[in-house]
Design a protein that fits this description.
The chain has 21 helices and 37 strands. The chain is an alpha/beta fold. The chain is globular and about 105 Å long.
Length: 810
C-alpha cells in the first residue's frame, strides 16, 4: 500500500512526464515499440481466495471462478496491450517511485485515485473506465467481476474482438502507436448473468459471459434445473406418503409428478431446505453470497386433473396452447410461496425460482409470485426460428405475451432460449432476426439472465452467438451495428458475400412455413434456390479473401456447408424414394463429420456424449448421434430392401390426407376402396410435416394430450405378383402408429424379432415392413393408413415421415 507521500510523488511525476496534457484527447500507452504504461495491480492479486470450510461446494466454486476470472483478466490486459503495440507491458503491485510510465490502475488501486465506482448493478456488476492524461487509467468495478468487465471494455474500445474460441476467432489490431481516448464512463451490463453452452473459460471471460452452469452473480442456486422439486424426496418418502403423488386423468398415480398443492409436500421441501441452510447460510452470507432454490418439476407435462390440485387453478382455467394442456402455473406458485414463507421466517433473504416450461409456461392468473422470484422461461414449444412478434405464426404472439406477463407479475426473467434445430445439428443456423428481435423485447421486459441452450458450433451459429453476446451486455448496441462489426472485422475483404450468405440462410428460415426447427422440414426451408445462392456466396467469399485468416474463417464455413449439402442430398433422395445408396452415402457423410471434428479439435464432454464439443470452433460436428437415431435407420433399411427385394411400381410419396379429431372409429369408413377422397388435399409424406400442413399443435384431448389422428389414402396400379412370391409394403418412418388397410382389408403388423401380431405398427423414426400378399391384386390397389400420434412432439412431425414402397420377394 502506498503512503500518501508516495502517491503524491507519483502524481507529480505523471503531471511532468506522461504524454499529453489536460486538453489532450488521447492517452498514450505505447509508441513505436516502447511501452509508455504499466499495469498497477493490488497487492496479492495472484493469491488464491480463502474460503470458509463450511461453504457449499457450489458457493466455493463460484468464488474460485471469480478469482480466476480476475487474475486471468489482468494477465489478458498485459497480453493484448502488448500484442497490439508490439511491446511488453509490465504488471506491478504498487507504482514504483519515480516511474515515468502511465499507470493503469486495477481494482482497488483505481478507487484510491479516481474515487468510488459510482454505479451499481446487483451490487456486483457495475464498473468504471477512466482514461486521464494526468492521473492515468482506472479499470475497476463493484467486485472482481466488475473489474474484469472494465478491463475488457478498454480492450473492446481498442478494437479487440473474440468472435470465436481459438486464435481463428481472435481479431487484435496492430497499433504501433497505442492510445486510448480520454474518458470517464460508469457502466453496467443489461443482464446480470449471460451464459452459453459453447465456448471455454477464455472465450467466456473475454466476452464477459459465464459458463452455462451459472453466471457470476451473488445468488448461488443450491437446487435448480429439471426435477429439482422431485429430488427433495426419496423413494422411502413417497412409499410412506402415497398421497403425495399426483394423479393422472385416469385416476392412476403419475410415475414421477408430485402434488404441488399438498400442504405436506411444501412442508417437506421447506424442512429439507432449512436443514441445509442451518449449516450453509452463515458461511455463505459471510462471503456476500445468497442461497437460492429453484423448485422445478421434472422434464414432463405436469398432470392437470388431480382433484386435490384442481381447486387451486384460476377460474376460468388458463389453457397453454403451445403445450395443449391446462396450465398448472398457479399450483406451482402455491407450492413455492408456501415453501418461501416457511424458509424466510428463519432465513429472510433466500431467493426462489422456477421454470416456465411446457404446461406451466404462462404466468399465474390467480396467485401473486413471491418476492425475489426468478422465472426461467424455456420456450421449447414456441417460435423456434421466428421472432416472438412474427405475424402469421402458428404460435401467434403467445411467447411475447408470456414474457410481458411474467414481467408484469414482478418476476425476474431468465431466458433459456433454444438456439438449435432439435434432432439435427448439421444445418447453418444463424438466428439473426430471431435473436435480435427477441433480445430487444426481453431487454424491454427486464431481462435478468440470458442462458440459451445451444449445441451448434460457430460454423453454424456465429451471427446468433455474437448478437447475444453483445445485446445482453450493452443496451445501446443495435443488431445492425453489431453485425456490421462482425462482417467487417472478422471477414475483412470477404465481408459482403459472407453477410449475404448468413442473411440469406436466415431469410430462408423466416420465409418457410416450418415452425418446429427440425430436419424434417429442411426440404421446405433449404430449397434448391436457397442452396444455390448460399454456394455462390461462399465461392465468392473464398475468392475475395486477402489474408490467411480471412481465408481460414471462410473455409470453415465452406467445409461445414459442404457437409450440409451432402446431408441435404440424402434428404432429397429419401424424399424421392431413391434408397439404394443411402446407407453408403450416410457413412460417407458421417465420416466427413468425424474428420472435421478431428481437424478442428472438438473434444470434451459433449463430444463424448455425442453432442457438440465445448470450447471449440467446429462444435456441431461432434454430433452424428442424433442423425444415427432419427434418419440412418430408415436409410440403411431402405438400402437393404433395394438389395434384397424387387420393387413393385413406383414409391408412394403423395397421399390424400384428412385429419380426424375424433375416435379411430370415425376414420374406418375412409378405409373403403371406393370412398370418395377427391376433396381431400394432397401431402408429400417426406417433404411435408404435420406442422407445415397446419397441424403443428393439433391436440384432440386436452387432458391426455392426444395429438390427433391422420388418415392417408393412395392408389397404385400393379401387375400380377409372380406365384409363390410374397409382397410387402415398406414404410420408411413414422411418428406414432400406422394401421394399414389394402383394398379395404386390415393388414396386421408382425414384429420381426418375436413374431408378435399387432393391430398396427408403432414407432418413431423407424421403418416397418408389412406383408400385403393376401390383399394385393392385379390392377388398381387402394392403400389407407390410419396414423395416431399419441404425444406432443416438438419436432413438428406426425404420421408418415418417409416414402412408402411396395416390394416382392426375389
Amino acid at each position: 500500500m502506498k503512503t500518501k507521500r508516495q502517491l503524491a510523488l507519483s502524481t507529480f511525476l505523471l503531471l511532468v512526464n506522461v504524454a499529453g496534457d489536460a486538453d489532450a484527447q488521447e492517452v498514450l500507452l505505447a509508441d513505436n515499440g516502447q511501452a509508455r504504461c504499466v499495469i498497477v495491480a493490488p497487492a496479492g492479486w495472484t493469491n488464491d481466495v480463502v474460503l470458509p470450510p463450511e461453504l457449499p461446494s457450489q458457493a466455493a466454486s463460484l468464488l474460485r471462478a471469480r478469482r480466476d476470472l480476475y487474475r486471468d483478466s489482468v494477465k489478458d490486459l498485459a497480453r493484448y496491450l502488448g500484442k497490439m503495440s508490439g511491446t511488453e507491458i509490465e504488471i506491478v503491485e504498487g507504482l514504483p517511485a519515480n516511474d515515468k510510465r502511465l499507470p493503469i490502475y486495477i481494482g482497488v488501486e483505481s478507487q484510491q485515485v479516481f474515487g468510488p465506482v459510482g454505479v451499481s448493478k446487483s451490487g456486483l456488476f457495475g464498473f468504471r473506465v477512466v482514461a486521464d492524461g494526468r492521473r492515468g487509467i482506472g479499470l475497476y468495478g463493484e467486485s472482481e467481476v466488475g473489474t474484469s468487465y472494465a478491463i475488457y471494455e478498454l480492450l473492446d474500445r481498442l478494437g479487440c474482438r473474440w468472435f470465436m474460441p481459438t486464435e481463428l476467432g481472435e481479431v487484435v489490431p496492430e497499433r504501433p502507436v497505442l492510445a486510448v481516448p480520454v474518458m470517464d464512463e460508469k457502466l453496467a451490463p443489461v443482464a446480470d448473468n449471460r451464459s452459453m453452452w459453447q465456448g471455454d473459460a477464455d472465450f467466456w471471460r473475454r466476452n464477459r459471459m459465464g459458463p452455462h452452469s451459472g453466471g457470476h452473480g451473488n445468488v448461488v442456486w443450491l437446487a435448480y434445473g429439471d426435477g429439482s422439486f422431485e429430488r427433495f424426496f426419496t423413494a422411502q418418502d413417497l412409499e410412506a406418503h402415497p398421497d403425495w403423488r399426483a394423479l393422472q386423468a385416469d385416476g392412476t398415480p403419475h410415475p414421477s409428478a408430485l402434488r404441488p398443492t399438498h400442504p405436506a409436500v411444501a412442508e417437506h421441501v421447506a424442512n429439507k431446505i432449512i436443514a441445509q441452510l442451518d449449516t450453509a447460510y452463515a458461511p455463505m452470507r459471510a462471503v456476500g453470497l445468497r442461497p437460492g432454490y429453484s423448485i422445478t418439476p421434472g422434464d414432463f407435462q405436469v398432470p392437470t386433473e388431480d382433484p386435490l390440485d384442481r381447486p387451486h387453478d384460476p377460474d376460468p382455467r388458463v389453457f397453454e396452447p403451445a403445450a395443449g394442456r391446462w396450465s398448472v402455473t398457479d399450483r406451482c406458485i402455491v407450492l413455492i410461496t408456501r415453501i418461501a414463507d416457511k424458509v424466510r421466517a428463519k432465513y429472510p433473504d433466500v431467493a426462489f425460482g422456477d421454470q416456465a416450461y411446457v404446461n406451466k409456461s404462462y404466468p399465474p392468473a390467480g396467485h401473486p409470485v413471491p418476492a425475489d422470484f426468478r422465472v426461467v422461461i424455456c420456450p421449447i414449444d414456441f417460435n423456434r426460428h421466428h421472432p416472438m412478434d412474427w405475424p402469421d405464426h402458428v404460435n401467434e404472439y403467445w411467447l411475447r405475451d408470456l414474457v410481458q406477463g411474467w414481467n408484469k407479475a414482478g418476476a425476474r426473467i431468465g431466458a433459456y432460449w433454444y438456439g438449435i434445430n432439435l434432432a439435427e445439428l448439421s444445418a447453418p443456423c444463424p438466428f439473426i432476426t430471431k435473436w435480435s428481435t427477441d433480445l430487444r423485447i426481453l431487454r424491454e421486459n427486464n431481462l435478468a439472465e440470458w442462458m440459451p441452450e445451444t449445441m451448434n458450433g460457430w460454423d453454424s451459429m456465429l451471427p446468433g452467438y455474437w448478437l447475444a453476446i453483445r445485446m445482453t451486455f450493452h443496451a445501446h448496441e443495435t443488431p445492425e451495428r453489431i453485425l456490421d462489426d462482425l462482417w467487417t472485422k472478422f471477414y475483412g475483404a470477404a465481408a459482403e458475400p459472407m453477410a449475404r450468405y448468413w442473411t440469406g440462410i436466415d431469410r430462408a428460415y423466416l420465409e418457410a412455413r416450418q415452425h418446429a426447427g427440425s430436419p424434417f422440414g429442411y426440404l421446405k426451408i433449404f430449397t434448391p434456390e436457397v442452396m444455390a445462392a448460399a454456394r455462390e456466396d461462399l465461392d465468392a467469399a473464398l475468392a475475395a479473401c486477402r489474408t490467411v485468416a480471412e481465408y481460414r474463417r471462410v473455409q470453415l464455413i465452406d467445409e461445414s456447408f459442404g457437409l450440409f449439402e451432402w446431408y441435404l442430398k440424402m434428404r432429397t433422395d429419401w424424399a424421392a424414394g431413391n434408397l439404394r445408396d443411402l446407407d453408403a452415402d450416410y457413412e460417407t457423410w458421417r465420416h466427413g463429420i468425424r474428420q472435421m471434428q478431428r481437424k478442428y479439435g472438438v473434444i470434451g464432454r459433449f463430444a463424448r456424449d455425442g453432442y457438440a464439443g465445448n470450447g471449440h470452433v467446429q462444435g456441431r460436428h461432434g454430433n452424428p448421434d442424433w442423425s444415427d437415431h432419427y434418419v440412418s435407420r430408415g436409410y440403411k433399411d431402405g438400402a437393404r430392401m433395394e438389395r434384397e427385394y424387387v420393387r413393385l411400381g413406383t414409391p408412394l410419396l403423395e397421399w390424400k390426407w384428412k385429419h380426424n379429431p375424433g375416435a379411430e372409429a370415425d376414420s374406418l369408413p375412409w378405409t373403403a376402396p371406393g370412398f370418395d377422397d377427391k376433396s381431400w388435399p394432397t401431402t408429400h409424406v417426406a417433404r411435408d410435416t404435420w406442422s407445415s400442413l397446419g397441424h403443428h399443435l393439433t391436440l384432440t384431448d386436452a387432458a391426455s394430450g392426444r395429438s390427433g389422428r391422420m388418415a392417408y389414402r393412395a392408389t397404385q396400379k400393379l401387375d400380377v405378383v409372380p406365384a409363390g412370391k410374397n409382397a410387402f409394403l415398406w414404410i420408411g418412418a413414422t411418428d406414432g402408429s400406422a394401421k394399414l388397410f389394402v383394398n379395404g382389408q386390415h393388414i396386421t403388423y408382425v414384429t420381426p424379432d418375436k413374431g408378435e401380431v399387432r393391430d398396427a405398427f408403432s414407432g418413431y423414426c423407424q421403418p416397418a415392413l408389412l406383408d400385403i400378399t393376401s390383399a394385393l391384386k392385379a390392377g388398381d390397389n387402394q392403400f389407407t393408413i390410419l396414423c395416431d400420434r399419441a404425444h406432443l412432439n416438438e419436432l413438428g412431425t406426425g404420421g408418415l415421415m418417409g416414402p412408402v414402397v411396395l416390394y416382392r420377394e426375389r
